[in-house]
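queue> pop job 88
queue> type: inverse folding (structure -> sequence)
queue> payload:
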């Protein structure tokens, strides 16, 4: 997708069905579009950042999808159109779908719609008005793929941003706060990543943000309403893992320092202080008592 259409995507099938896709498209100097048939999958931001991809303008023809970007979540059905900026964090969940997609240069569309980022991940109906004109145009582009000259393709590339802008003119940018379901999805991704990387002593909000393509500021915002801040939750979880290992007879041969370092602590003094503060006893005293009680039983 990046090579042919200058748009970076990370696509993954689900566990029940092997991923499959069929692509028919046109990739010229300025005009790029494609018909894509996908099996159930998720699509998200590419791991490689700094890549200035084109905007994805996707006309849904079959199937249903949920698109997420900039704190918005929208259900997309047949004859709906949506826009995604692949250079910013996004997430798409889809079943079996057929999409007719345009890949539009950022600058070309932003010159006409300066607030384009307010229109991403939003439903644009194409059954009437300018949306219907755009839908017929996209369908005809695919029908004429093999008959376009280079000059015709360049002229169409000039016209398409204006058609897209006209389709957006009948809708109002949605500036509502992020829906709870999207926030829950992001929190689930964050906590899953943390649990998988708990042993990494360098993990912090910036590290997590880079790994899952969210901003550091947004990650902090997600946990503002929690009783325990994110980094404190990470420390508590590490302490719980250490406490379990210290109480395990199977871990008797491992030193307290080894256990602490294994679970991401890189300062044994700091670990001992945090352990005592949380559990009211030193790691050494806790271990001695726990192993004695286990032996007695």
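queue> result:
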């Amino acid at each position: 997708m990046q090579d042919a259409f200058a748009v970076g995507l990370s696509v993954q099938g689900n566990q029940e069905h092997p991923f499959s896709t069929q692509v028919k498209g046109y990739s010229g100097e300025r005009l790029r579009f494609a018909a894509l048939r996908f099996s159930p999958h998720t699509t998200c931001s590419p791991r490689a950042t700094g890549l200035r991809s084109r905007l994805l303008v996707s006309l849904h023809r079959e199937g249903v999808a949920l698109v997420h970007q900039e704190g918005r979540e929208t259900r997309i059905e047949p004859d709906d159109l949506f826009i995604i900026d692949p250079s910013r964090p996004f997430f798409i969940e889809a079943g079996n779908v057929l999409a007719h997609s345009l890949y539009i240069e950022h600058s070309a569309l932003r010159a006409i719609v300066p607030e384009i980022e307010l229109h991403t991940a939003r439903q644009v109906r194409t059954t009437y008005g300018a949306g219907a004109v755009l839908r017929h145009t996209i369908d005809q582009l695919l029908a004429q793929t093999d008959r376009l000259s280079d000059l015709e393709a360049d002229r169409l590339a000039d016209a398409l941003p204006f058609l897209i802008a006209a389709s957006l003119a009948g809708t109002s940018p949605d500036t509502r706060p992020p829906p709870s379901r999207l926030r829950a999805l992001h929190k689930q991704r964050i906590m899953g990543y943390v649990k998988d990387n708990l042993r990494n002593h360098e993990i912090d909000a910036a590290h997590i943000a880079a790994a899952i393509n969210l901003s550091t500021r947004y990650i902090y915002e997600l946990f503002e309403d929690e009783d325990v801040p994110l980094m404190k939750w990470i420390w508590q979880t590490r302490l719980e893992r250490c406490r379990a290992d210290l109480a395990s007879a199977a871990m008797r041969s491992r030193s307290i320092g080894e256990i602490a370092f294994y679970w991401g602590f890189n300062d044994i003094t700091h670990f001992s202080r945090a352990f005592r503060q949380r559990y009211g006893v030193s790691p050494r005293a806790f271990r001695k008592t726990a192993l004695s009680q286990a032996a007695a039983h």
